[in-house]
Amino acid sequence: MAGKKENRDGSLKTFLLTFLVCIFSCFIAYILWYLFRRPVDVAPPQPQSVEEVRIVPPVEVMPEEEPEVVVQPQPEPEPELPVQIQPEPESEPVPEPQPEPEPEPEPEPEPEIAPVVDIVEPQPPEEPPATEAEEAALPEASPLAPLPPAFSSVEAHVDEVIITGSDAPVYDDDFFASFFVSGSDTLQYDDGLYYFDYLVDGELMGTLEVLFQGEERLMNTGELRIYLSDLLTDEAYALLLVDGVGDYVSIDHFRDNGVAVDYDETAFTIDMTFGVDAMPERVISLAGGRGRRTFSLSGATTLEPDFFSWRAGYNLYTNLDWTFDSDVFNWSLSLSVSNYLNFGPVNFDFFYNMSLRNGRFDFNWNSYRFYYDFIDQGIRLSWGNVYGFGLSPSGTPVGIQFEKGYGYGTIESPYNSHREYLTVTEESYLQIIRNGRVIFTRTLQPGNYRIQDFIFDSGFNEVELILTPTRYLDGIDLSSDAVRNDPAVQARLAEVSYHQYFDMAYDSQLLAAGETLFGGSFNFGRTLVDVGDEASATGVLLRVSPFYYYDYHFDDITLSWYQDVGLTDEVTLMSDFSVRTYKDHDKDRTVSIGDVSLSLRGAWQAGTTTLSFDTRLDSSSLFAMPDIRLSLDHSFLFDWQYFRGVSLSLGWSNDAYNDGDGDELSMRLSFSGSVGFLRYSLSGNIAIAAYDFTRPVWRLSGSVGLSPMRGLSLSAGMTVSQGISPSNRGVQVYGYLSASFSFGGVGSGSYSTNFQSQSLSTSFSVGNRDSFALNISGFEFDDPLGHSLAGSWYHSSDLASLSLRASAYDHYNRLSLSASLSTASLFSGGLFGMSRSVRDNFVLIRPFDSLRGADVQVARSNQGTPVDVQNFLGTASYSSLSTFQRNNIVVYVTGDDEFAETQTFAYELTPMHRSGYSLRITVPQVYTVTGIVSEDGVLQTTFSSPVYRLEVDSSGQEVLVEDISLYLFADQDGRFIISGATPGTYVFDYNYDGRWYAVRFTVDELADDEIRVYDFGTVDITAQTVAGCAPSYGALVDYAGVIDITAARMTDSATFWNELFPPLSVEEIQQDFVL
């Protein structure tokens, strides 16, 4: 009987292995077919791989030329033009422009229409072209209005994205674009670097650096080469960007060589239009310009990171624990510190903690790591405590590793490699429809086009490109779904529109064709050995603490490598290889282990399938069967709310993989959905060991949830399972019920039960800084005091966060109290700051001199509202910066005086990984100058004047220089107020009795920081002494003399403004509001 059972098991094992091999073979065959399959682009009646659409004017065919089928319409009573679909020259056949083959209609008389649209394929001639009569000409439509520009880049996958294009998109993100300039016909810019949006044929390419030198406008040659290298012909590239071209090239250089340049200094855009001879192919990106996120702030000061910066996070934790019945008391105090140092391009991270437990002190240096980023390649090189990929040595390994990733530099993940090509010789309207939804529209001018960066939905995508000459669209708005789906419109456009199709299966976990990510490592083991236990060490000892050694195991080394490759846009190959060699000191032998993991993931019409193979080879059992595991996972995609998220997994592992427990088969199935407001999910898995179907290990879980009202959520679930161990051979049933509720964001609570014990928790917040929580768990009616009770309080400030927690359990026989304090410190460029938490990059801002102690706010240039930043001992810190991207920030500094003006500073910075910046802000002391002007006691209320600074030129003569930031005018009381005057001598113009006088006054820097106002009182011009005027003054105005005035008093801002505008009392305010 035993022999029969053994034969039966062997036959069953053979059958199952054969079945799995067949599944794997079918899947590999399908992947290979899908790998070498080209997407089908259909232009009926025959498919083609790459198509070109050429819209050309009609060509009259003479009767004596080679025979062709030409269908002439019958003449109408009124004279009309014949309609013909003419072929191109002999070398190219002409397919019909219908999406599907149909019988040709009989020619009928038709009204006059515009010239013909011919569809031309770049293929060798196969058969004579077919022709048919067109329908009546359709009216021409006006172009679509462009959408406002998007400030953020589109992700690699966005569901239901609609991107609407137009002939000339307008981009206007310049910080100063909203400023109104009055009294000047032209804008004036200082010399320096500015940043423009760069467009080619209306398509945004990115940001372009432009150098202003007087009247010259010079573009950065290096950036132009990056944008245009793949678009221009070799001859045009050499002519425009190589021959005789320096670091910067003028706009006129492009214009002189036949390039149309639309330069807009107000909108800060440069749009170039190249001829077909220079740019044979134009690029349309459906993802939009990624360079949009790197736009610059015109006129901003560029900040460079400090060579050294240090960011550290601290967590102080203490715990007190009492056990009353045994009179046991334990306490502990620990400090964990995370340090992140930057030395130019090299970063150094190290972590340690100190603890004091019941009087015993311990120090532990946890780990350290150096790393350097190759920014242009997106590769990070790390050395120190690195764990590698796959197998790892003992303890905390030490070694070196490298890895390519999109977070390590400026490279970006490509959307996909799919391209569509069109050649258009007549203005046409392009629509791109994905799964029945229009995602892109654009009016195309004649030229060759490459359409790329398609954005797909997860699952199967059917994409249609429709090209219609605009002369047929007058009065037809194809952007409207109702108009586009109108059968009459579709029938009329079917004859004149070109349709191109392709399909694509997409999954966000797949790589684009040709895309690759990889990494490798080499490391060896390192363990800890306590002082006094040196005899247990098996490697090289290094004393690093009064309490322990590092034990380096140079005989325990690991090599690992992984690589993911996009074979196509729909298939990705993932591979992992690792080898470990170590010394088995118990058996005095060297053991080598090798792990190999291969996975092939592909997306197709039915979803995403992943085929995986894992094996391990061990030198200790070299001739034995290696560990093997095979798995097949598939995720079905259903766009149906009642049934979605279906996944199926099949697996097999051999006896060696399962440590001698026999081969194992496994299967898992899960799905979810919703019916109205009821949500549900079901999952089940089963494992069969040693092909013994009488003892399966299985588990079945299900859950439902609903929200009957806002703020209330109910859920229930049940799990039924059966194990294989002797203690778990029977069927186990577990169920639960739970309810959660919230109170408008202020508080929340939850209740759950598994029918044996109950749990109840609640929490509420007080403002944005404090929150409280209370939790009762493990409550049983048979043992009411057996539960646990815990309460906590959390407080958050700008500089730190604090949490306190108290808990009681074990029938209230044990009490535990704990507290945790977290904060962070920053150092860069000699400045020190504190904050509650810090991101990778930060800026320390220190106001000096007259701004000392001022409030600081910072705003990103693409965000409207500035935010208050943490201030510690006069230094503010800001860390909302993006790595490897150009960041534009505006800093607002307001003095502690309630009447102080807000100073604004704009900066541009491009941080690498964990960069620190130091910013010292200071401005000269500024004062307010005020007074009242009269003539013989009559207040002068209608005069105004520029304000000049009195300076000394190189020859030593006094000259007047107009200060455009200051201006003087008198109000209805004759009072003038000049704000923002720095120390110096000033002059303004005054006309008396038909003659001009220079009124001169001096503003001195005062020792008292509170005194900010020079009050000249009432100045009677007729009572002033007139002095002689220096000849150099007349360079601006022919003055009759100079009148010197002096301040009647100097006071603080609060006194002056309260005298000028007395504040209302409470009684006056109440009286004003009495009806």
Automatic annotation (TrEMBL):
Transmembrane segment boundaries: 12-36
Q: Does the keyword Transmembrane apply?
A: yes
Write down the superkingdom of origin: Bacteria
Residues covered by region (Disordered): 65-111
What are the entry keywords? Membrane, Transmembrane, Transmembrane helix
Return the Acidic residues bias intervals: 89-111
- For this entry, the protein name equals Uncharacterized protein
Q: Which organism is it from?
A: Candidatus Aphodenecus pullistercoris
* Phylogenetic lineage: Bacteria, Pseudomonadati, Spirochaetota, Spirochaetia, Spirochaetales
